[in-house]
């Protein structure tokens, strides 16, 4: 197993390289004088000159890339002009908040999606199934940023049950219950679409699996129906759903941009939106890279998990 | 199945689509929205940009404002319709751009193959390694905020979906004969791509478009919501929502209304997308499969209670009838089968595939999947109890306990994700109150008993790590786990090669003798029958046509069908003998002919044979035949 993880980690390296190339190329699309564009129009002439040197703009694109990459590998992501602090510091600080939000949303959508999907398949064409199918239909079409506003109106304004914004209360708070209270609405909002996708897929794969010969064998052994479904069918379903959960991690990490804006969550998504508005390109670059890299790791995790569950994948 | 459709012809794609109620309602909602958006210029509406400081933040339905007004006193209904127009136009344009470039990449990669394919797909994989929205954000960051830039960004991040899908289809097409033919006839690559391949990938492009356009509308609205798309005074639904958000607490309608419109738009498109996909690619249809229940439905008119069973029988089957309902058609897979199974004997149930022999076996303990199967009549008695009417929990206590099954293909019938030891343990513990460790010990003993070498170690193997013969031994071990009185073996050796077949057969025979269980052995192969069975029942079209001792049947087969089956047995060293298979096909069991079901394939058939009901008539001691000519011939 550990050798497999090592191998997968090794495979992740070229993907990470690819990410940096794409980000680099996108930034090379910036029209006009890159240094001014990157630093913004408020940049001092010294900074522009320093950056020009740093970017080696007289060199070829490939050379520029190598220099840029080398700097990053040494932890130099540049300096955010709008915040006047190193990009890496800011990005790492913000990333923690995003990870808490996206992680809980991912956990939520996996649990709810799997449960709903299994229930829906077992009660196929029953009322529960129809209700879940309807929720899925609505869920995957909901603009999450709008849903967030609706939830704020209901839970924070109408019923005053949960806080509408931020990660911790400004006065007092700061402990775990406080965090959970602030996390509830954004995490639910962020998980809705992914829950729908996972539930739909789980239902389809459960229905497919329940027709397999080995399920008939399980029944022919005299196993109770609960065990047939919870153990035999569910494990197979899990194997096919896990990669999709991995992919959903990408949608959740991306969707965090909206949710963090709606709920003023101090994460990297909100930072990115502000950085784009202020044209703080280096900050955008750093933020995009770290989120993309974490997505690669999420997928790797899903992959390893799948290998752990399915012995046929081991050679 | 065929008749009806032939008359009405294949239903058109449009009919199929309209019959899908959800897809149709999606179409209706979408049409209404589009119509309203298009009519915005000629409807009697205020200009969307006309401000009226005195009429700020009017609630919906108030004062001549159907949907109220915003913080500048602009008419929300008017703004909504104009904004919808913009959102649809932008989403649709993004879809077209993504479809064009994505399809182009997919076509070239799939057609060229090799290095070109490889490097293009690497690039696509890289793009897909980004979280969806994030890449769009990076692009907008580089190009600067604005509606057009948002459009480009969303289009770019959707290109991979098109490229992947279209490449997959193209790859298959590029190797087909008609493409080779076109190439040989001297057509250029571009012409082949445009005239031969593109028409065939068009459905895939349409499916991908219909499933992504909703997303693209949603995401461009999202970018506008963040303030990165439409810039004032231009407004789309997203930017309206974004502006309204600042007034969430004082005038929630300003943000709720445009959001609702985005939701309706996206949902109606998704509903349609699902419908279009189901029509163009029915294989992907979700939820079309129905799930088999834990027990076959008992649809008999009368449920006979428990009564004494014929003495000296382990199981008594009387007039068993099992049907499958597919659409309007009813297939009578088992049409009145009766037999006794005596303790310690081996009864062979023989017939071609489709004769109903497996369905008979599965019916005994309610293992025929419902839907579509159901028990239509008859009785199955075990210890006097009517098993067809037994409760699920009663059946579960018998299944794998007193009555155990061995199935045909052990690769598909063993669970791929559990070790064989684990699966045997489970069978043991379903019927015996043993702890895990004890059960495991017992499982290893069983594996030893079925002569699996290194049983201790192999118990930790997964099914795919074993050979076919070994797997079937595991299947047998599982059936023996709880000292069954009746073993039902459904073609247990058919999936194995000949030498392994003989070994497994021998093992099964020995173990059956040893345990003194009754064995119901289902097979199509008379060669196997002669090896193992004491008595034989031959099935054809859902009924038993001849039954007798193996000796009687093999030496004096009385039914023409039995004779042909016996002739099909390959004789060692004479392969061509096998070619003398029975001409013709068994009748489809939804429309059985009157009289003898075998008449169409029988050389001795005459008009008499096609009339009335044929009975299973006793020829000599316990040798019975369902054939008009059998007595004369004998
Ligand atoms: S009844 Fe007639 S058709 Fe049927 S098997 Fe006998 S001879 Fe052939």
Automatic annotation (TrEMBL), chain A:
The keyword Protein biosynthesis does not apply. Residues 95-301 form the ABC transmembrane type-1 domain. This is Peptide/nickel transport system permease protein. GO terms for molecular function: dipeptide transmembrane transporter activity. It is a multi-pass membrane protein. Its main location: membrane. PANTHER family: DIPEPTIDE TRANSPORT SYSTEM PERMEASE PROTEIN DPPB-RELATED. One of its GO terms (cellular component) is plasma membrane. Keywords: Cell membrane, Membrane, Transmembrane, Transmembrane helix, Transport. PROSITE patterns: ABC_TM1. It is found in: Cell membrane. Belongs to the binding-protein-dependent transport system permease family. The chain crosses the membrane at residues 9-30, 95-119, 131-159, 179-201, 236-259, 281-302. Pfam families: BPD_transp_1 (PF00528), BPD_transp_1_N (PF19300). InterPro entries: BPD_transp_1_N, MetI-like, MetI-like_sf.
Automatic annotation (TrEMBL), chain B:
It is a peripheral membrane protein; Multi-pass membrane protein. One of its GO terms (biological process) is peptide transport. Residues 290-310 are annotated as: Disordered. One of its GO terms (molecular function) is ATP binding. InterPro entries: AAA+_ATPase, ABC_Ni/Peptide_Import, ABC_transporter-like_ATP-bd, ABC_transporter-like_CS, MetI-like, MetI-like_sf, Oligopep_ABC_C, OppC_N. Its main location: membrane. SMART domains: AAA. It is found in: Cell inner membrane; Cell membrane. Residues 315-566 form the ABC transporter domain. The chain crosses the membrane at residues 21-43, 86-112, 124-144, 197-218, 247-267. It holds the Pfam family ABC_tran. Residues 84-273 form the ABC transmembrane type-1 domain. One of its GO terms (cellular component) is plasma membrane. Keywords: ATP-binding, Cell membrane, Membrane, Nucleotide-binding, Transmembrane, Transmembrane helix, Transport. PANTHER family: DIPEPTIDE TRANSPORT ATP-BINDING PROTEIN DPPD, OLIGOPEPTIDE TRANSPORT ATP-BINDING PROTEIN APPD. Belongs to the ABC transporter superfamily. Belongs to the binding-protein-dependent transport system permease family. This is Peptide/nickel transport system permease protein. It comes from Aestuariispira insulae.
């Amino acid at each position: 197993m550990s050798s497999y993880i090592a191998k997968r980690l090794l495979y992740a390296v070229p993907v990470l390289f690819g990410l940096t190339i794409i980000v680099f190329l996108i930034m090379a699309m910036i029209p006009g004088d890159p240094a001014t564009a990157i630093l913004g129009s408020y940049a001092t002439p010294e900074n522009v000159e320093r950056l020009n040197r740093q970017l080696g703009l007289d060199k070829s694109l490939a050379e520029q890339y190598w220099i840029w990459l080398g700097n990053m590998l040494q932890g130099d992501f540049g300096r955010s002009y709008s915040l006047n602090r190193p990009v890496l510091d800011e990005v790492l600080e913000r990333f923690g908040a995003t990870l808490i939000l996206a992680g809980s949303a991912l956990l939520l959508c996996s649990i709810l999606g799997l449960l709903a999907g299994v229930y829906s398949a077992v009660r196929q064409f029953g009322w529960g199934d129809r209700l879940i199918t309807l929720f899925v239909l609505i869920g995957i079409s909901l603009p999450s940023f709008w849903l967030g506003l609706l939830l704020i109106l209901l839970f924070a304004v109408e019923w005053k049950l949960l806080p509408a914004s931020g990660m911790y209360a400004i006065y007092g708070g700061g402990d775990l219950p406080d965090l959970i209270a602030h996390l509830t609405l954004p995490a639910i909002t962020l998980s809705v679409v992914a829950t729908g996708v996972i539930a739909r897929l789980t239902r389809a794969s459960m229905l497919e699996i329940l027709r397999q010969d080995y399920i008939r064998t399980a029944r022919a052994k005299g196993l109770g129906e609960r065990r047939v479904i919870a153990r035999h069918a569910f494990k197979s379903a899990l194997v096919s759903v896990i990669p999709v959960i991995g992919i959903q991690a990408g949608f959740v990490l991306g969707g965090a941009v909206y949710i963090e804006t709606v709920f003023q969550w101090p994460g990297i998504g909100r930072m990115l939106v502000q950085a784009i508005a202020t044209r703080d390109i280096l900050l955008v670059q750093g933020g995009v890279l770290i989120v993309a890299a974490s997505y690669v790791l999420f997928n790797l995790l899903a992959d390893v998990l799948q290998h752990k569950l399915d012995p046929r994948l081991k050679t | 199945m065929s008749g009806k459709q032939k008359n009405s012809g294949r239903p058109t794609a449009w009919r199929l689509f309209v019959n899908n109620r959800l897809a149709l309602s999606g179409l209706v909602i979408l049409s209404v929205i589009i119509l309203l958006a298009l009519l915005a210029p000629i409807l009697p509406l205020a200009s969307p940009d006309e401000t009226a400081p005195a009429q700020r933040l009017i609630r919906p339905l108030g004062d001549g404002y159907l949907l109220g007004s915003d913080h500048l006193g602009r008419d929300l209904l008017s703004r909504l319709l104009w904004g919808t127009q913009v959102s649809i136009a932008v989403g649709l344009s993004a879809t077209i751009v993504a479809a064009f470039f994505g399809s182009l990449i997919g076509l070239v990669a799939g057609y060229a193959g090799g290095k070109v394919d490889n490097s293009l797909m690497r690039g696509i994989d890289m793009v897909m390694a980004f979280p969806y929205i994030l890449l769009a954000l990076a692009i907008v960051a580089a190009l600067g905020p604005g509606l057009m830039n948002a459009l480009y960004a969303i289009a770019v991040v959707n290109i991979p979906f098109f490229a992947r899908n279209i490449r997959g289809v193209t790859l298959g097409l590029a190797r087909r004969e008609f493409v080779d033919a076109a190439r040989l006839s001297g057509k250029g690559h571009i012409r082949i791509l445009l005239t031969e391949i593109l028409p065939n990938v068009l459905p895939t492009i349409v499916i991908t478009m219909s499933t992504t356009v909703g997303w693209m509308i949603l995401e461009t609205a999202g970018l506008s919501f963040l303030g990165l798309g439409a810039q004032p005074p231009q407004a789309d639904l997203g930017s309206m929502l974004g502006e309204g958000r600042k007034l969430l607490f004082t005038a929630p309608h300003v943000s709720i209304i445009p959001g609702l419109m985005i939701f309706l738009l996206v949902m109606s498109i998704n509903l349609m997308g699902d419908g279009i996909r189901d029509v163009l690619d029915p294989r992907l249809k979700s939820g079309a499969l129905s799930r088999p229940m834990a027990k076959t439905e008992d649809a008999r008119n009368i449920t006979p209670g428990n009564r004494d069973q014929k003495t000296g029988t382990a199981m008594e089957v009387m007039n068993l009838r099992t049907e499958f309902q597919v659409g309007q058609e009813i297939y009578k897979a088992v049409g009145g089968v009766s037999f006794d199974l005596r303790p310690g004997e081996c009864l062979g149930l023989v017939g071609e595939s489709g004769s109903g022999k497996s369905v008979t076996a599965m019916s005994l303990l309610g293992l025929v999947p419902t839907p579509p199967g159901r028990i239509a009549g008859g009785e199955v008695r075990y210890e006097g109890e009517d098993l067809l009417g037994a409760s699920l929990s009663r059946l579960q206590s018998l299944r794998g306990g007193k009555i155990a099954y061995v199935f045909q293909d052990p690769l598909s019938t063993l669970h791929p994700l559990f070790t064989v030891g684990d699966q045997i343990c489970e069978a043991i513990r379903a019927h015996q109150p043993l702890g895990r460790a004890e059960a495991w010990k017992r499982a290893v003993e069983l594996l030893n008993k079925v002569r699996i070498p290194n049983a201790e170690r192999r118990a930790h193997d997964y099914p795919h790590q074993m050979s076919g013969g070994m797997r079937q031994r595991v299947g047998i071990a599982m059936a023996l786990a709880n000292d069954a009185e009746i073993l039902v073996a459904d073609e247990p050796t058919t999936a194995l090669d000949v030498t392994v077949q003989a070994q497994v057969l021998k093992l099964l025979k020995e173990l059956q003798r040893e345990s003194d269980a009754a064995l119901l052995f289902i097979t199509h192969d008379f060669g196997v029958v002669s090896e193992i069975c004491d008595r034989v029942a031959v099935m054809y079209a859902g009924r038993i046509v001849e039954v007798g001792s193996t000796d009687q049947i093999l030496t004096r087969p009385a039914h023409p069908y039995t004779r042909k089956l016996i002739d099909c047995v390959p004789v060692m060293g004479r392969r061509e003998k096998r070619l003398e298979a029975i001409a013709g096909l068994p009748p489809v069991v939804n429309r059985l002919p009157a009289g003898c079901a075998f008449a169409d394939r029988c050389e001795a058939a005459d008009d008499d044979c096609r009339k009335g009901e044929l009975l299973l008539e006793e020829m000599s001691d316990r040798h019975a035949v369902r054939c008009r000519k059998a007595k004369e011939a004998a």
